[in-house]
Write a structure and sequence with these properties.
- Two copies of one chain form a homodimer.
- By secondary structure, chain A is mainly beta.
- In chain A, a hairpin with a 5-residue loop joins strand 1 and strand 2.
- The termini of chain A are far apart.
- The mean pLDDT of chain A is about 95.
- Chain A contains two helices and 15 strands.
- The interface between A and B is large, with 55 and 55 residues.
Chain lengths: ~200, ~200
Amino acid sequence: MTLQQTVPEPGALTIGTDGAIGGGTGGYDKRLGELRGVYIDDGAFEAAVAQQGEDGLAYRVEEHRNVEGPGALIVGTSTLLPGRVGEEFALTRGHLHAKSDRAELYYCLSGRGVMLLETVSGQSRAIPMSPGEAVHVPGHWVHRSVNVGEEPFVSLFCYPADAGQDYALIAEAGGMAQLVVTDGDGGWTTRPNPRHVGYRSATS
Amino acid sequence: MTLQQTVPEPGALTIGTDGAIGGGTGGYDKRLGELRGVYIDDGAFEAAVAQQGEDGLAYRVEEHRNVEGPGALIVGTSTLLPGRVGEEFALTRGHLHAKSDRAELYYCLSGRGVMLLETVSGQSRAIPMSPGEAVHVPGHWVHRSVNVGEEPFVSLFCYPADAGQDYALIAEAGGMAQLVVTDGDGGWTTRPNPRHVGYRSATS
């Protein structure tokens, strides 16, 4: 008598440069109305909502999961639509992993973006990403994608399945310490977020 | 007085479809002579060595590592040159992760390959990979890349930094259970490896 070990089926995926995943297991859409309070310019945000609606698509995540556990991964795509809210470029909410030592890979499939990274102790980095460029985000870095181009900014991501996301950390800090804004000349730059009050410690 | 937490710098990487990584931290070359005993046709293997030399390049791994630990990842590329040894297509040694529950992502950047996957209990899968296709390898699957095309088969990989590789498992089993061989008509197929004696259990 043998015990047959049950293992998940390998995921055979097609991953489009438009972010569409064939063979994925799920995902979610983030609507503009869910990003209220995330952008610094409340008036510009409400004007965008008036134009695009609360349900206007802001970004989409598609993914493939097998199992949970310390050895498992989550693989997926993030597709962030272009645009600006006031001077700020379109962004994802951003997060620190709930298990803060969990790392993440982002590999740009299309578009032109910036990975904004910050530590709770005050370090900040803004790394430009174009197709073929990647950011290996170590643990302990809060991170957010920003679309500084004219097309959707699409990245392939891969991170430990037990990482989780602490989104509240950024909200409680009044937003990330840096903003990614227009430089007034067709490009982007960063500048301090006047609402940022510093990060609390990570929860784990 | 504040304690400044030391965190690794984010990796800003350029990842070519030829497998070249800008900003990486290391890697290795696997030479033909190191693959003695891996292919089924010993005569064809020695003929290949006579032609290409013990030091002929078989495949190259380039990677970026930050830190060790359960939350860290290793990101890299695998570039497997094309060719055949007898009826078998060019392959990597293959491995089960030493921590056998560790998963891995492979995303094809160029070329045309097959991911051959097997469990120690006898399941087998052969998943074709072309640019834009990916395989999410769950834990507990022995896996190997095979180049069934005419060009280098290049994939981006991402896996937990504490995974390790158990290469001996395959050698002790007389090779993987399946071979990826020419179908005699310009394509590939699989057939049982007559030397395969079954896998022992994973070490962890």
